TrEMBL record:
Lineage: Bacteria, Pseudomonadati, Pseudomonadota, Gammaproteobacteria, Pseudomonadales
Lineage: superkingdom: Bacteria
Organism: Pseudomonas fluvialis
Name of the protein in question: DUF1326 domain-containing protein
Amino acid sequence: MTSYVDWRLRGPGVDLCNCDYGCPCQFNALPTHDGCEAAVGFHIVVGHFGKVRLDNLHVACTFAWPGPIHEGHGQCQPFIDERATAEQRQALLTILSGQEQEPTAFFAIFASTLETLHEPQFLPVEVHTDRAALTASIRVPGLIDGRVEPIRNPMDGAVHRVSLLLPEGFEFGEADCASATFDTWGAIALSHTGTNALLYELHMGPHGIIRA
């Protein structure tokens, strides 16, 4: 059995992508459009990698795949909180790379679909979520501007609440659906309005989701 570094990340996460609300990926279906494009962020409220503490750091990534994610050939650009020390930066990049996680767990699965990993950027990263209000944001000055608001009833503008329950999910077990507007620049340039957003609690370790 492979031995992994003991690590854990816990805190609110948000995914913004170019698919319709709910995202077909969550139903083992093909993407709404030909490819997948996304901006993802999370705020680590509590975390560690071995003896390196990762509390209160923010991380974001932009992604693009030419087709469905499982077909690979994707690219990613990571953005790590500039407040992170050299040890914390290395720890977070190691986690994102999937090197210290089982092959069937979230970060390892996503890393296996990437063909190009752009140079990580160490900048001010801010990820904020409010699941009760169905709002969130991912911001890296000049590189990511992502905003989340509730899905609205087209007739009267009322907030439309929808949640996903995935008992065997590998990124999260439950998520709230919302509406995303996001623009990204840099190595991966994206622009989408009124597309899918998912708000969830990230709780992850070397063996995947920590469900306890």
